[in-house]
Amino acid sequence: MGRIRGTGWGWAIMAAVVLAGGALTTAYAFDYADVVGKAQQLAARPFKPQPRIAQLAGLTYDEYRSIHFRPTATLWPRRHLHLQFFAPGYRFVRTVSISVLAAGHVHRLRFRRSLFHIPPGLYPHRLPRSVGYAGFRVLSNSYHPDRSPVAPNSQVIVFLGASYFRAKGSHEQFGLSARALALDTIAPRPEEFPHFIAFWIRRPARRAHALTVFALLNSPSATGAFRFRIRPGRAVHVRVRATFFFRRRVYELGIAPLSSMYMYDLCDRRPWAYPRPAIHDSEGFLLASRHAVRWRQLANPARVHQFVFPVRHLRGFGLIQRDRDFFDYESVSMRYQGRPSVWIRPRGAWGPGAATLVEIPTPNETNDNIAAFWQPAHPPSPGHAYRLRYTLIWNGSGPRESRAQVVRTRASERCVGRPVRFAIDFQGTRLGRLIAARRLAARLRTTAPGTPISHVRLRAVAHDRVRLSFTVAAHRPRALRIRAVLIAGGRPVSEVWDYVVAREEPPMQVLRRTQGGA
């Protein structure tokens, strides 16, 4: 970290500002350094929120979904990657400035009603001249859309609401979201939601398969400059470069945050009103350091839970959906088995810090109740720049290595007060050979020394899969944390399975709702 010297506003303006074709056009060489300069100057001024379009805030969810962008108005339809936009309304009433970078010019796009199919009487006839779009989405011709209701569509990534964005691979559908920055998620004061206020999108070459997007972030506590390099495919890679400036100290700083939904799994008690076996966008939190890989099964707790995992040398973290079996969800419309995983891989050393997992109670499947992010051990001071780089891999399953993965967890009851029976499946190419040679063993630990663990059994269920089963006498009045890892020759050969058996309480009916979202 260090102070950035003024990048200045001394751009070489080569032409006067002209208004043509509904776009405000300015000619100068625009790059990431210009966005950093804007963020630095914005941080030196008092915070001023984006104005709200009050007359559009009354739209209901169904009314907003009835507004469709006209496909014939798609920007760059003959290129591999092209753009469509979202109209303001419903919860998305703070619009953003969207500009296109092409041929050395910056073209600012103005909102045009004619680009959308809007049901009669839904939109007011007059809107402020400065109104922009709510957000945009990137589409790819390589995703091969068709008319089947279960086929993947051609959308690659969507930026919509606060600083939220989400992507999906070519054979998946949208699920969890990423955010630019999380501030005071669990804090004595209300959570702060930064907003993107401007985007600059570089027009790709005709045969290009990647897209560059610049973004400017603003909030009462911080500003930020971003560069997103988006490459679609079966897995979408989003390379992020970010620089933050802080107006004031924050209580809890969350870097590279993710938001997802977990209601219940096959190892949880199913609510009586829900016939489906499992409902979740992500089933586990994965964390990789230099010496270990940890898998934490997610939960829908009775009270808010926050778990902090200190790490000195971070290799990556993410929210993962490993269960891809339709019959474990049995939902034709929601297709939870097709939701993407997201793996965050730092580029360069982030230094010491802690990966943080937050679980919030939810009574339904419509709320994001899971958050994961990185907290640096030494938060930046106001007036100084904080820089980082990382890659988000959508459809990523985590680090590629020889350790076996946890692929399934089953439990009899997920609460203390009675014995809990577990069955954990590990999958890896070496496991069948190790267990046949009687070289494979399991190491079990709990946060309460002396907790009885019995009926421990390790057996093969396939050539590359073994099942660890055991019973824990969880009679303690407080939550119990259990860890298990497979070892061979005294060394771990699998991820560390990490699980929390919580104290049984009545389900919480009120959820603190998150703002924004895509």
UniProtKB/TrEMBL annotation:
Subcellular location, principal = periplasm
Q: In which pathway does it act?
A: Glycan metabolism; osmoregulated periplasmic glucan (OPG) biosynthesis
Coiled-coil regions listed in the entry: none
- Cellular component, GO annotation: outer membrane-bounded periplasmic space
GO BP of this protein: beta-glucan biosynthetic process
Q: Where is the Glucan biosynthesis periplasmic MdoG C-terminal domain?
A: 30-499
This entry's Gene Ontology molecular function terms read: carbohydrate binding; catalytic activity
> Does the keyword field hold Transcription?
no
To which protein family does this belong? Answer: Belongs to the OpgD/OpgG family.
Q: What is the name listed in the Swiss-Prot or TrEMBL entry for this protein?
A: Glucan biosynthesis protein G
| Protein species of origin | Acidiferrobacter thiooxydans
